[in-house]
């Protein structure tokens, strides 16, 4: 809202009237406006909203719409609230107007929402009395009101804005996800439709379902012989398989029609309950192929698509935050400046007044004294402030104060203002017993020194540690003595810590003590403890205050004081607290709104026959918890099933309510929670920068100290009589430091080189040490061993053996240990062990054991090898000897499990795999810091949980009994459906997850934190009553706060920091690979693309009038494409129309339509084959895909028609869905997304290999340890989910990795589980307590490390989604290949250069030039690209693409002289990064010198001559009269320039500008184009399409343009330096004056400006770093003058508004200096420094009005013409401006003012801007403003030609 600006017309015109009645100055409107704009009104409205929320929250929903009395009373308040909101709305409408004009009521999104709420509210109130429709749904929109709070809080807006900004890319991703869901849903519909409706019904009663375990299961048949493998067969003796079940989950989970299918697929993608669906499908149709559907669905959907969301969000968040930070700093500096100026002027004024007062005679002495005293006091204060300002961190403050105090006794004579001297004066005044005070003070200093000592600090830390131990040993059922001991220890520790606090306070004095944050923290913790102890003494049984005890553990954080990286992490996290708190607030609002909405929709509805589920929406707290649970993503599908079922189930329209849950999951889980991660990534990057900076600082400090020491030593040595040496210029420490750094780098590089050389040379030399003290280097045995180990195929052979042994491990049978298969594999195992032993022995012979460097055990991998080999050998020995120890199989078995590590040996042998592995290891190093904090926090939470819940998690299986004493005997259980109850024994047992001791608590919390099964733990905690008592549901709801806090700290935050760390490490690793930062990641990926790109072949029949050609024309035409697209879409819709139990007619119709579509696609395929010919047709992969789908569809249709299903042809149906994939070719964004997908898949194979290895190792261990546990449908080890064989093990681990109920699997694998019957073991000795370590470590590695590598790869590859779109990236390059194919259909890889020009103008920026690019700009780019041409004037595909990329991303582009060297460097770089590919293609990428040199034709030379010709043509005829002496023609000038005669000095300065054209090479080219006639160059083939339209290429155009002002002259640019001039003249001496042709001229002119690029390069960086707004590329780049206005030396603005500012009037009396054309002079545009000076002096008021275009130029050394100091008032008279017609050059004015039309005086700023920006054209947009379009960054002179 805010104050609305007056309408643009100014005060004279009236603003629009409100509601057509009230004008702007109507009193009613004025008052209402005043009311709605005052703050109390705002607050009143917000308070009303909050009150309304409270009312909504207080309602309690009862079943069947009953209401409590409270609810009835609350309902009556509804009308009042509505009244208030109505009043607010009507006031606003009166004040602002309704909708028709700007700033009116409904133009604001919040107001629209309000209005909607008010209207729906009034509707419900009327409807309730008159209509019996329940409009509660509409009422629920009231809950959106709290969102209005958002618009008030700034840091919230950052979060919201970044989410909103991310919406655009998120929508693209959403489309992709939707597409994937549709494809998977259609496939599911084809295969699984109606599969889940069969189940086992009892033979006694055919309506009674026979469950398996505790729930009904889909079945396949009741005849075992018919059933496919892995399906569920009913027991034919008691049940039969019938097809009339609703289906699992009340019939909601199914693939019966497209809606159900999409919902089911979405549910799988969120990874909740997908395994259940998979297992049901296995039961229903057999387990052979189902995983092929579900695993890709999870991998693509969950790991990929949904992680994209994360990448986009974090990108947007950091962008938004930097934006906000920049804005904030800018405003801060501005206000600071303003304040400073005001303050200074004010101070000066006061000082002058004081001087005046002092000088006046009537001022009394006393007054003078007063003033002087005040001044002295102020000075003292300033000094003190200065001292205080030095203190940095939390602790240095305390030290500052202390040192200050300590210094005092020494400096008695000085008059300080410190505290101690003040004390001293007090002491003197006391006088009573000065000795005592003095002694006290000494004692105090002694204490202070003690407190500062290191031992004191460590003593405290040790105390903290012991205290922690004492807190941690507390557990349930501890003996009495421990309780007593802990009780005493409690007091002891409290006393010690209090003593520490008081000692510190005494020593430092309270003020300094409390200055340190750590001390304040300590004090709070201790006072809390005291309060808690006192309280528990007074009132026995503390009320959860024991939690405060746990806070003492926070003292552990004192360690961070000394650990910099940890400290920085903490600091950076604290910095992000604001965004985190605002995000939490947003999250809270979100939860609140959805909880209230859920209460309106589902309140009181969740009452089913089996009771109300614990997750419901009946009361507000429970609703909040339910929404929170859905946000954490755990079991949200269960809640959704209840919701749908409560609203009438899937048949009576309950399905629509699924939307509520889907929106909740999408927005909450995927959007809001990912912003946490975005914040974490951002902050970690900050923390790491901080740490790096600190380390550097430390290094520098050390260096400085070193230097000082050396100096002192020198001085001391000098003191022995020889005169001391005085250093005139002491070396700066930083320089020294830099040198050190360089040296270090060099050393590292040398090491690297050495390593590389070692790798390349081949056989390593023998180590020069004796091996095992016996074998010298000459020993033949050792030499032989060395020879064997270094054989070429030795490593390869070992690799094969490793893979074979891995296969044999996977093939073992874990259940029956003595099966024949195992025996055979055992013999193989002996062989493998033998091979590995031999390998180890050979290596030890060769390298020695451990004592010297390079020996066998000095390498980690070798140690691992040795351990594996020795263990295998030991177990073999046991087996063979068959000794008594051999009977104890478990030890041997555990030794043999170590064989699993063998596959790890491959890591060392595959370099890229080793790189990924190193990355993981490095990120682990980084993670350790966080891991420590993480474990600390986990520990603190565990201790708190033990305090709260120990001994309260017991229950009796008979729910009516509450204590262990009562829980004895038997009780009756009634099963539904059976009349007779059955007796069951009562048992008193603990829950599986409990908090009875700290270890159990940490395990429970770990499970909670992975989000699996935590709702159950939450219910148990809320039901926990007292120690040794049973549960009562929702006994203490407030316990949920513990979990919510835990969730915010852990899963939302710490886990995200883990992810962030891994992502950052991964990115750093990736960047480290690009050697020495010569090219960045984006450039590398672009060059990668170029190296692999090949031209596409586009076939076209050669005979124009043949039938084949006509078909070809049809097939390639756009309408045909669209027609096929429509067919595909209709076909998709047709596939979506299928549903379960459809009528026969419907099915037949679909079949016939399907045949129709198939025939159409067949026709398309046939036509294409006819048009292209068979060979060419199959060259395009899409065509092959088409062909296969068509053949598949035909077979499918035939089978449906003629074959009654004798064999299963289900897979043929896939071909129908496959056509959908063709849609992906069409959308541009989708295509780019997909392309990037493929790219990231290319980056993933090694990551995947590593993950596969992890899975392999864990699967084998699982088979060995848990393989023989009996299957039991009541536990988690079932027929679907077990370790019986390798494949099953992998599936189980995959399930755990997606987090599906892993805690229950873990609990099913612990010790004393029943064994399988075949295992030949006694009853309950299977399973092992290794399960805890096994599963926890697997989850940790998998979900924290491995899957996050996925995220890292994706964020790495998709950064372009949030990057500035005008930056060229590899995803743009596909377009080049596609468009090239249109010009070069035969894929020869060459096209004529004119066609190339045409093509580049057809490709949009950032890759091509775009259709709107003026010709001269294009020419300049081409001159810089300078590809060689062959004899036919053709350019090469690869060369062109590379030149384009290089020019665009400016990869090693320098000034012309240095280009040769730059090329060489680039060649080296490419050879380094792509050693294999570079050999073949290097000369294509960067052409050799001799291809560009003398006598060779290049594109640069052609377009340079064209550019010169064009400039010459446009200026050849007609001169403007001017005050200067007459000039000769431009052509003569060119000849003069070429000859090096600078005779004609009457020409205007601009001539030289015109002559400066850029080329790249500095090889001498005097006779360059002599053989080529001018006409040939220009019209060597028909001009390209664009140049045909361009008027000024043809002579007539020149005549035509005569009448107009020649405004074809872009702005001023730098000229050359004298040095270059001399060099150039020197080159020219040998050529004679008369034999110069046009071609020479071209070559020489081209030669002249070689050094331009130096300045470009040099200033590009600074230009960007300044962060100044530059609308169109680089304004400092050289500019090429078309010489239109070149004779008009006075530059009066009336002739060309596009000039640099200058004093009005001609430069007459300036002397001859400006008349000459010597290139030494600078162009007359103010230098940047001077500009800035002028700006600061004379234009403070305009500082921020316009974007400042500052040109950075080289060569400040030259004299400049004086620049105007005043804001120049150039009168632009509109009459005299005629603009020539340009070809559609977009206007590029960057100033919103109306300058273009020439309206009155301009400021100096505008003038400069115009001078830089080139001319302004009359623009189609009012006010001459058009938003700047993204424009190429590195073009040479973009602005002048664009503008």
If you had to describe this structure to a student in words, what would you say it looks like?
The structure is a single chain. With 1843 residues, the chain is mostly helical. Among the domains are: 27-152, Voltage-gated potassium channels. Chain C (Four Helix Bundle (Hemerythrin (Met), subunit A)), CATH 1.20.120.350; 440-562, Voltage-gated potassium channels. Chain C (Four Helix Bundle (Hemerythrin (Met), subunit A)), CATH 1.20.120.350; 776-909, Voltage-gated potassium channels. Chain C (Four Helix Bundle (Hemerythrin (Met), subunit A)), CATH 1.20.120; 920-974 and 990-1088, no CATH class; 1124-1226, Voltage-gated potassium channels. Chain C (Four Helix Bundle (Hemerythrin (Met), subunit A)), CATH 1.20.120.350; 1246-1363, Helix Hairpins, CATH 1.10.287; 1520-1842, no CATH class. It is built from 67 helices and 8 strands. A two-stranded antiparallel ribbon has the order 1-2. A hairpin with an 8-residue loop joins β4 and β5. 34% of the residues are buried. Residues 1-13, 390-425, 721-746, 748-762, 1518-1528, 1537-1638, 1648-1801 and 1811-1843 have low confidence and may be disordered.
